[in-house]
Amino acid sequence: MKDIAVLLGGISAEREVSLNTGAQVMAALAEAGFSPRAIDVGGDLGALVTALTTPRPDAVFNALHGRFGEDGCIQGVLDWLGLPYTHSGVRASALAMDKAAAKALFAAHGLPVARHSEVSAQALEAADPLPRPYVLKPVNEGSSVGVSILGEGDNRRADIARAWTHGSRIMAEEFIPGRELTVAVMGDRALTITEIETSLAFYDYEAKYAEGGSRHSLPAAVHPAIAQQAMEVALAAHQALGCRGVSRADFRYDDTAGEPGRLVLLEVNTQPGMTRTSLLPEQAAHCGIAFPALCRWLVEEARHGG
Predict the structure, then answer these.
(1) What are phi and psi of 43, to 5 degrees?
(2) Residue range 42-57, pLDDT digits in tens
(3) pTM of the predicted model, to two decimals?
(4) Which residues are catalytic, by number?
(5) Fold of 96-113+177-270
(6) What dihedral angle (degrees, nearest 10) is formed by the CA atoms of 25, 30, 36, 37?
(7) 107 neighbors 240 (Cβ within 8 angstroms)
């Protein structure tokens, strides 16, 4: 298997992130002995199908992020074309991207989730959907796009509702104080735990991608019971969704009242960032898996369907 088509760019709010991921994956795949070719995915589906069929690649590396790239849409196209591709299939991708559906699934499997409610922009403009503080986020976006925290005395609620541009579905979720943790899963193995620290209000889009926006500590210095729980929950969430390849589970850890504290699963990302310094490759490197080897493993695990 040599010819690998790398899908990058896309038409979501995370296009620039995907272009960065795709460029670094291209270099890593070449280093791993493959012949990668970039396909910049735009709004012309016919052009994309042509690029994927003339010639047909041996496999597709999905380096897209956000809507249409990690929500099952592109996965359905690749299934239709019978092309093996990296990361999760249609069902797991669609479930994970829909925060309401994912939380319902996690709760059904006994995994710890925050109190939450789906609300319309009109209802949000009229009243608080939850006791404050709470978090507002789009149901179908990633990378903390459109996320706001509303605390006591914050009068932005009506303005946020009136200016909402991230789809018709809004998730309100109780704000969990404490620390930001994440655990990557590779196949049937949880890798390690990273604590993400930022000087910003929370781990938002800027903290994720701006230079110096966050600091990563791994393995995270947390209570042993919490460390074990985080690893177990990340793998359980990966399996509950039906993910394949890699995923990354994001958590809040409230130890403000002392240890061991409370661990809450926020969401699972089926298309984690894949630059060399992103959280997943960083955890893989900590476990002795170099970035080109990680990309090679993903290609070797690629398949269609699921």
Answers:
(1) -85, -5
(2) 999 999 999 999 999 9
(3) 0.89
(4) 14, 143, 209, 248, 250, 267, 269, 273
(5) D-amino Acid Aminotransferase; Chain A, domain 1 (3.30.470)
(6) 80
(7) no
